[in-house]
Write a structure and sequence with these properties.
2 domains; two-stranded antiparallel sheet; 15 helices
Length: about 500
């Protein structure tokens, strides 16, 4: 009997082991083979004719045990007609979300081709869209790598890993910092000047990556970061109950928006938008901030003064301002400014106007600045993949993933008490202290209600940032200032001057 039991036990053990091995082999087979398309091109950028290659495909990153962890899809542009390519600046470019691919800055700003949209904030409509050569691209002076974080574009978790392992402030920065290390190693770019270029949440990502790349032994020191439409301290933009700071930091953008749509009473009293905004800044920092801080201690005369000036700068009705307790969040403003005309203003770019089915509700049904341009960028990247760089895949390219956003871990670290509002400004400040060549470029749109310029100014003026190494630029456009043709040209020239001072 014991012999029979032993045989049965051994058979069961061998069967389980075989099943486990089969499942393990099946798991390995399920990891797709990395794909890479390499194509050769010519172009003329900033008046210079060059040759370059495009490497578009996958990079499989491994965990500490050598197992596949994540696939990062990226598109790398490398100039091929120069002898010492190692000394060329190298830009790692990504957008934000979190949950966005790199399509926006790729097809709108830095890439060799871009989709051209109306500069006056008109809706784009349907295909065909205007996709043309981009002579303003930086390819004559720099190589660029456009990165799609896990869950966006064609980037995916691999093996036993799931998306949530990468969907968090720290987790995201860690995996993309690892991608940077692997890329510069495989492409012999350790001695190249290196920059991170992020837009929107991508600026938060850039700040977190500064910490991951530069701190500790074996660091990868950066020459700088480009913060485009930045949000690096979320206290400046989170309208949480009891946090009055955003009411102050958003006000100059409210004012700029009212100026653009001719809602400012007595607009002729100011000679320019810049003069008007400067006065609004001063009011926001002093009289307005003081009254908000005082709360119930504010005197009636002080409150009346604030109500009158908020009306003068934003065009909102005095009764509405009073009933809002002097506190109007961004969504209320976007709906209220032009309610009488049945219009709502855009969030990403407040120059855009939309119409909602219900005029009396307190928030818009969708952002007019988003649905006006999304289709054009989606079509442009797919057309470019198939017709220019030979990327032909059947799986969907995730331009913007809601799944990533709703599952994002906003805590930096494991402790729930480690941080209140996420703030990566101290990481940037520390990066400056520990690297004398580290510089910061900041691009701001006057009509950006998603990441307002005054909030960015507040961040730059705190936490020990060395302002002597910060370049602040402003454009009469919104979150994606490169949509606006004249702003685009100035913007690119400003970036060129920053990279090659």
């Amino acid at each position: 009997m014991k012999k029979i039991i032993l045989i049965l036990t051994t058979t069961l053990f061998l069967t389980l082991n075989a099943d486990a091995k089969e499942e393990s082999d099946k798991e390995i087979k399920q990891i797709p083979e990395a794909q890479m398309s390499v194509t050769e091109h010519k172009g003329k950028f900033n008046g210079t004719s060059i040759k370059y290659k495009v490497s578009a495909g996958d990079s499989h990153l491994l965990d500490a045990k050598g197992k596949p962890k994540a696939n990062i899809f990226h598109i790398a542009y490398t100039r091929t007609d120069v002898k010492n390519s190692e000394s060329r600046p190298l830009l790692f470019v990504f957008n934000g979300g979190p949950g966005s691919s790199s399509v926006w800055m790729h097809m709108g700003l830095f890439g060799p081709k871009r989709v051209v949209l109306p500069s006056d904030a008109e809706q784009v409509g349907a295909a065909p869209f205007n996709l043309k050569d981009n002579p303003l691209s930086l390819l004559d002076i720099a190589d660029m790598v456009f990165i799609d974080p896990v869950g966006t574009g064609f980037s995916t978790p691999l093996g036993e890993y799931e998306g949530k392992a990468f969907w968090g402030v720290k987790q995201d920065a860690e995996i993309l910092a690892e991608f940077v290390r692997v890329y510069i190693t495989e492409n012999n770019r350790w001695n190249s000047p290196k920059y991170l270029a992020g837009e929107s949440y991508g600026t938060t990502r850039a700040g977190a990556m500064v910490k991951e790349l530069q701190e500790g032994w074996g660091s990868i020191d950066l020459n700088g970061i480009l913060l485009i439409s930045s949000i690096i301290d979320f206290q400046t933009g989170d309208f949480t109950e009891g946090n009055d700071l955003p009411y102050v930091t958003f006000l100059p953008t409210y004012a700029a928006t009212a100026w653009y749509h001719n809602k400012v009473p007595n607009k002729s009293n100011w000679n320019s938008l810049q003069e008007f905004v400067a006065e609004t800044r001063d009011f926001a920092l002093n009289e307005y901030a003081t009254v908000l801080l005082k709360g119930a201690l504010a005197k009636p005369a002080e409150i009346d003064n604030v109500v009158n000036k908020l009306h003068a700068y934003t065009g909102l009705k005095k009764q509405y301002i009073t009933q809002s307790k002097l506190r109007i969040n961004e969504f209320l403003f976007m709906k209220e400014l032009m309610r009488d005309e049945g219009k709502v203003v855009g969030r990403l770019d407040s120059r855009y106007l939309g119409e909602d089915a219900n005029i009396v509700v307190d928030q818009f049904e969708a952002d007019p600045a988003s649905y006006a341009i999304d289709g054009a960028y989606t079509a442009a990247i797919q057309h470019y993949f198939a017709n220019d760089i030979n990327v032909k895949r059947s799986e969907p390219y995730h331009v913007l993933s809601g799944e990533v956003f709703v599952n994002w871990n906003w805590l930096y670290g494991n402790s729930a008490r480690s941080q209140g509002f996420i703030n990566v400004t101290p990481f940037i400040s520390k990066g400056m202290r520990q690297n004398k060549d580290f510089r910061v470029f900041v691009a701001n749109g006057y009509y950006d209600l998603a990441t307002p310029f005054f909030a960015t100014e507040h961040s730059m003026n705190h936490h020990g940032i060395d302002l002597n190494r910060v370049t602040m630029k402003y454009y009469e456009a919104g979150h994606m200032m490169y949509i606006h043709e004249s702003s685009l040209k100035t913007f690119v020239n400003d970036i060129r001057a920053f990279i090659l001072p």
